[in-house]
Write a structure and sequence with these properties.
Order of helices and strands: EHEEHEHHEHHEHHEEHHHEHEEH
Radius of gyration: 24 Å
Number of helices: 13
Distance between the termini: 37 Å
Strand order of the largest sheet: 3-2-1-4-5-6
């Protein structure tokens, strides 16, 4: 049953989250919790801070509410602690020690709310020689060996946007840690700190590959392995119109269907012969160049050859499978990924667009029972 005043739907309805505004993996983690139904209040700073885009388009702030509080003042710190007293979770992404200097570190928060789950999102972690150093996604995945695995062997490593570090190694591990700690807090009454470091998460993502490497089944160089593009039947190929097809025909039965539909049955025996992989790759590449991406998509349609067209961001939402599932939704004029994952009983949705700084102060003050969020009875505006 939802708590009065808590907006939305989802399995986390009734869970209250305070997000101290930042950029990157922290906001994305808070968005995921909000998508799952939590009441996320983002504490924005006067003057704003965030992506270099209009905040109306920052969908990592969807399904949230925003208040503006100046944490550099004693009054601002007190207001945040009032929110913390009523919250289940806090998320911050400052460098180690900054939250403590601002008066909202774990110790201060746990004095007010011993059950609080205090989520800390950083690149390097709360301790270690680099803990106080600046950094971004690319440096974190570089240090863990993750970046060095991605790309062609004769080219520099390929940068996978900031998906592997910030969001996979960072946000998702923070959310897993927060939910585990929330379960513990509800069972024991004791809150705790979750130290989510992107270097830890990015390293953890490669657990299977480290096992393969130790067993001699993975070479420590790019483009030489089964899953990194080194295998000729697991990779991407250019088509006649300059587009690409993705091939993942690893298992024998899928590979057999792949070579048949591609029309290269004479090369089927090269699958297990590493000495012939170069020849197989050249044959596959030449064959894909004879037709357009759409033509090859039609050839492989309905098959188990594990071949798919490589779509752009603009094209992906219109793919029949993704459209049928509603993988993307339109909200407020922005096409965006729908909340994930899905649940058999709890319905999730994009309930509101990106929270605008300070726009929800009055509602949060009422719903959370924190009247001091209001100044002279009026919502605080950006810069006031």
């Amino acid at each position: 049953m939802a708590v009065a005043g808590t907006p939305g739907h989802g399995p986390l309805v009734g869970v209250r989250v305070v997000e101290l505004a930042g950029i990157g993996p922290g906001p994305f983690a808070a968005m995921l919790l909000a998508d799952l139904g939590a009441d996320v209040v983002r504490v924005d700073r006067p003057g704003g801070a965030g992506l270099a885009i209009n905040p109306e388009y920052d969908i990592t702030n969807r399904n949230k509410r925003s208040v503006i509080i100046d944490l550099k003042t004693q009054d601002g710190q007190d207001r945040v602690l009032d929110l913390v007293e009523r919250a289940d979770i806090l998320i911050e992404g400052y460098r180690p020690g900054v939250a403590e200097r601002l008066g909202v570190g774990p110790e201060s928060c746990h004095v007010r709310n011993p059950k609080l789950v205090y989520g800390r999102m950083t690149g390097w972690g709360q301790e270690g020689p680099l803990a106080q150093r600046a950094g971004h996604d690319i440096a974190y995945i570089a240090l863990t060996g993750t970046l060095g695995m991605i790309g062609r062997p004769d080219e520099p490593p390929t940068v996978p946007a900031n998906l592997v570090g910030d969001y996979a190694g960072g946000s998702l591990y923070l959310v897993v840690g927060i939910l585990a700690a929330l379960h513990h807090a509800r069972a024991s009454g004791a809150g705790q700190v979750v130290d989510a470091a992107i270097v830890d998460g990015a390293a953890h993502l490669a657990a299977m590959i480290h096992g393969m490497f130790a067993a001699g089944g993975w070479q420590d160089r790019r483009g030489a392995n089964l899953l990194d593009g080194g295998c000729p039947y697991y990779g991407t190929y250019e088509t006649a119109d300059g587009q690409y097809m993705a091939v993942g025909a690893l298992e024998q039965q899928f590979y057999d269907e792949f070579v048949e539909l591609l029309g290269i049955e004479e090369m089927a025996s090269a699958r297990k012969d590493l000495a012939r992989w170069g020849e197989l790759r050249e044959t596959v590449a030449a064959r894909f160049k004879t037709r357009t991406r759409d033509e090859w998509t039609a050839v492989f349609e309905g098959s188990d050859a594990c071949v798919a067209p490589v779509l752009s961001l603009r094209e992906a939402p219109a793919h029949p499978h993704l459209a049928a599932r509603g993988t993307f939704v339109d909200h407020g004029g922005i096409t965006q990924p729908a909340p994930a994952p899905r649940f058999s009983l709890s319905r999730t949705a994009v309930r509101s667009g990106p929270a605008q700084p300070g726009a929800d102060t009055a509602d949060v003050a009422r719903d959370w029972g924190v009247p001091d969020l209001l100044k002279d009875g009026e919502p605080m505006k950006d810069g006031n």
